[in-house]
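User: Hi! I'm working on a homework problem where we have to compare a predicted structure to a textbook description. Could you give me the structure for the chain below?
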Amino acid sequence: MAERADARQNRARILEVATQALARDGDASLNSVAKLAGVGAGTLYRHFPNREALVLAVYRTEVQRLVDRVPELLAAEPPLAALRTWFALLAGYIRLKRGLGEALTAPNHEAATAQTYGPVIGAIRTLLEAGQTDGTIRPGLDPDDVLLLMGAVWRTPDDDAGREQAERLLDLVVESLRPVTS
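Assistant: Happy to help. Predicted structure tokens:
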């Protein structure tokens, strides 16, 4: 049975509000999310029967949005710049995910990570291939390796000094992707 248009709109509004609320406060309650979304608690619980279901939906939605940005970035910037921009967005999202991850049980956290890993690797592959095609990224790079390398960027503290360090690390990583010249 197809979901009604108003139900889809309510779900989308709840997810949008929950994303913002959880970014501000990882402990935001379902009732506060419902109130901010302008829906009753019953409406929220019909879509998301518990807090963990809502957090998982927010996580999956945000990863998909990030993956979906790749073509837009490649249309607006050269591939190496698009890759840098995308990784900066990913690093910001991973910082948000830390708070979301704390709200999930270990099995659900692992499942969410496993479900989103493939699309993230696919996005990185697309960015790398675009740069390899235009000659700005060295050939033969493995998307898994690049993702692992990028892990240093989002492991910095979430304060001004940590963000400055993340920018420096991001620059180092991006530079390491350029073709080797003799």
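For your comparison, note the following. The chain has two domains: 1-49, 52-177. The chain has a mean pLDDT of 88. Good luck with the assignment!
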